[in-house]
Amino acid sequence: MQDLIGDQFGTYGTVASFSWLSSDMRRQGVGTEMRQAILHFAFEGVGATEATTEAFLDNSGSNGVSRSVGYEENGVGWATRRGEPGLMQRWRLTRQDWMRRRRDDIDLHGMAECRESLGLS
C-alpha cells in the first residue's frame, strides 16, 4: 500500500507519503521502488515542493528506505502503536534534493487528466 496526502497542497505544495508492505514482500526492494515511484508522481507529476514521511524509530526497514531515496532526518515525534507510545523518526525531502537523485526510468501517463481531476490544472 502506498498513500500520498497533499493536505492544502494548493497552498503549500507539500505531500506526505505513507507505505506498508506485507511481511512476505519486505527486503526485496519493493518498498524502495514504491517510494521512488510515488516521489516521481509527487515532484514530476503534480509539482510538489517537499515530501515528508515518518516511521517508528525501531522500524529500520522503513527508515532505511527513506534514507536511501534521499530523505533527511527532520526531528522526532510521538505516536501510538498497539496502545503504547513510541517515538517516530520524521523525514523530509525537498524538490531540489529529489532532483539530484531522481530516476530517469519512471514514466508518468495520463497526468493532464489526473492534474485536472485533482484541481491542479
TrEMBL record:
Enzyme class, UniProt record, top EC level: transferase
Protein name: Succinyl-CoA transferase
Domain N-acetyltransferase: residue ranges: 20-71
Keywords associated with the record: Transferase
MF GO annotations: acyltransferase activity, transferring groups other than amino-acyl groups
Top-level taxonomic group: Bacteria
Listed EC numbers: 2.8.3.-
Organism name: Microbacterium lemovicicum
Entry-linked InterPro entries: Acyl_CoA_acyltransferase, GNAT_dom
Gene3D superfamilies: 3.40.630.30
